[in-house]
UniProtKB/TrEMBL annotation:
SUPFAM superfamilies: Single hybrid motif (SSF51230). Its EC number is 6.4.1.2. This is Acetyl-CoA carboxylase biotin carboxyl carrier protein subunit. The lineage of its organism: Bacteria, Pseudomonadati, Pseudomonadota, Alphaproteobacteria, Acetobacterales. InterPro entries: Biotin_Carboxyl_Carrier/Decarb, Biotin_lipoyl, Single_hybrid_motif. Residues 1-70 form the Lipoyl-binding domain. Keywords: Biotin, Ligase. It comes from Roseicella frigidaeris. It is an enzyme of class 6 (ligase). PROSITE patterns: BIOTINYL_LIPOYL (PS50968). It comes from the Bacteria.
Amino acid sequence: MIRVNSEMAGSVWKLLVAVGDEVAEGADLLLLESMKMEIPVAAPAKGKVAEIRVEEGETVAEGQLLLVLAS
């Protein structure tokens, strides 16, 4: 399992994947909004989206688990 954590505090602006989606390494998984900037969160490796732990509009902390990929 590959854990994808937030690199910064912000809010989840848009989810770009759903559970079950296959993603390539580097593919954008979701967009965070912080200080009026949109920051993409990319997949660190290829895999299948196993869990999404956040919802659009949710505020997240730095280091918080966003989603899990199955390799």
